[in-house]
Amino acid sequence: MIQHPQKIQATIFDMDGLLIDSEPLWQEAEKIIFAKAGIEMTVEMCEQVMGMRVDEAVEHWILRFPKINFSSTQLQAMIMDKVEELIHEKGKLLDGVVSTLELLKTQNVKIGLASSSHFRIIHAVLKQFDLEKYFEVIHSAELEKYGKPHPVIYLSAAEKLNVVPVFCMAFEDSFNGLLAAKAAKMKTICIPSEKLFSDARFAIADKKLKSMSDFKTVFLYW
């Protein structure tokens, strides 16, 4: 019996490091704010918490450096304030974002956003680059009990889009995000940063691209 290819019904995008080149901004903010708390953050330390919710990232370091002279709530607010400031000052949309979103619209595929960032950061980015019009659903992990790599944010976004997770495709750049999407049983397209592109862990993605500009309609079928 011949089986015809199935088409993806919904695509769900991460935001930081995928739509906008914001990972360097988060790293800059983390280094500045944690320095005030007496911790010298390295790039490698920042990369350990890529894709995680800011509260979970902060708690991660508080557990390791219990003598930090700020509370978790204070650090979270300070980091988000700095990130929002840097988005307006230095934020850049990544290649292929708008063309891919436009292409998906022509394919009548639902489009959602599932970000570890708080809504204030999400809306700052979407407003800055006029992207709100593309997304049927915008969801933040701040509403969930767990952040990525837990799959709940993707499961919730699929439910809001009224699409079964196995008919969804997730776009991610971080390993924590990729784990979340895979655990939600979604097809995955991973677009790591140039520095992390050769990381063997990303082999679990269904497709690995160097840029969103490399996305093709054929990827919507399997």
Task: Please render the helix and strand layout as text.
Elements: E1 10-13, H1 23-36, H2 43-48, H3 54-64, H4 72-90, H5 97-106, E2 110-115, H6 119-128, E3 137-140, H7 152-161, E4 168-172, H8 175-183, E5 187-190, E6 207-208
Parallel strand pairs: 1-2, 1-4, 2-3, 4-5, 5-6
Structure, described:
It contains eight helices and six strands. With 222 residues, it is of the alpha/beta class. A six-stranded parallel sheet has the order 3-2-1-4-5-6, sandwiched between helices. Strand 4 (168-172), helix 8 and strand 5 form a beta-alpha-beta unit. Helix 1 (23-36) packs across helix 4 (72-90), helix 3 (54-64) crosses helix 4 and helix 4 (72-90) runs parallel beside helix 6 (119-128). The two termini are 16 Å apart.
